[in-house]
TrEMBL record:
The keyword Membrane applies. Pfam families: PEMT. Keywords: Membrane, Transmembrane, Transmembrane helix. It is a multi-pass membrane protein. The keyword Membrane applies. The chain crosses the membrane at residues 6-23, 44-61, 73-94, 122-153. The lineage of its organism: Bacteria, Pseudomonadati, Pseudomonadota, Gammaproteobacteria, SAR86 cluster. It is found in: Endomembrane system. One of its GO terms (cellular component) is endomembrane system. This is Isoprenylcysteine carboxylmethyltransferase family protein.
Amino acid sequence: MNEAIFIIGLTFHGFLLLMLVMSSKNEHFQFWPPPKKNSWQYHSLWWSIRFLVMCIGWLSYNDFSSIFVPYWIRFYIAFPLCLATFFLGSIAGLQLGWRNTHGEADCFVDTGFYKYSRNPQYVLFAVCFIFLGIWVASAKALGLLALLSFWYLRAPFPEEKWLEQHYGEIYLDYKEKVPRYFGWSKNA
């Protein structure tokens, strides 16, 4: 059963990655961020992510400890760092707001974590996913989580075009000053 769940998860990943690549390469195609809340892109994105999370949850539980990772790495490093990055990523999500987080233009945010990174939520959750995979010690769950981390780190690229269209000069000035991920300010 775990193999079937893993293949289902890979299928959803394949769809999400294909849509992300198409959004990045084709200026006339927009998947992320979705063009409208009631669009097929919005619904297929969020349902795909829901099913993918269910697959990861299943494998995290039913395939728990199926590969050897030393106990001290799992419980003293991976688990606390998973919790910390999840907590910080959630704070970044709250700072951005529900609508902005879900691909709807609500308001421009450049405060909180967003003073230091244009994409703190993506970075923190991508790191969280890797630590979660190490903690559960499941090759299948870790594989799906690593692919999800990759998706999170690639999502800003098509999103930037959308942000430029919606927020114009404000976003372009912000983009000049604040790094995409975490790092030194461009003006430092």
